[in-house]
């Protein structure tokens, strides 16, 4: 039992490390995404809600790791059972979330495209109602080096001719693949919708790797916590 206790104490430290990684990564995304809320409110709100959930998950996993360590060191069957139940619930939620994500993927894509269409209408507006939105979106274009939501400079409509700095790209300072010539000036070639989707896909790959690694640690934690729980009961 003592050898198992030592092993589990080390094992339960892994969820705390994973929790710290998830928490730190989520806070970083939260901070860097906050400035883009005004530019794409609907999309950013959905993304930030997911990031906030990850922050909560990271904090909970850290607490669970501490609970498992204490239960193993003190040989507390109550703490080990609480750890087992909580970890099992998190694992079930992870699997459920993955299934729901796969099932509702078409609806999410449809909602995202609808958001892009609304964004294009706001960019083409000349009434002044979306003036603040347009200013924030221009900041986003400079940061991501993109133009428009879907169809590049065409998404700006008449506003493109009124403002000479919209989507402005200086080819002598940039890569030749980054700029394109449109209406007597160089503009960014890629649309912001395309760039944002690519960034989301890149982040999803990272998060899927973290999720699979975390699931493996959680399964080990479940197996060994129940093993230790039974060993303590036989003493």
From TrEMBL:
- According to its record, how does it sit in the membrane? Multi-pass membrane protein
InterPro entries xrefs: Tetraspanin/Peripherin, Tetraspanin_animals, Tetraspanin_CS, Tetraspanin_EC2_sf
**Main localization of the protein described in the UniProt heading:** membrane
Kindly indicate whether the keyword ATP-binding belongs to this entry.
no
> Which residues span the membrane?
43-67, 79-104, 204-229
- What Gene Ontology cellular component terms go with this record? plasma membrane
Can you say what this protein is called?
Tetraspanin
Organism per entry: Prunella fulvescens
Which gene codes for it? Tspan8
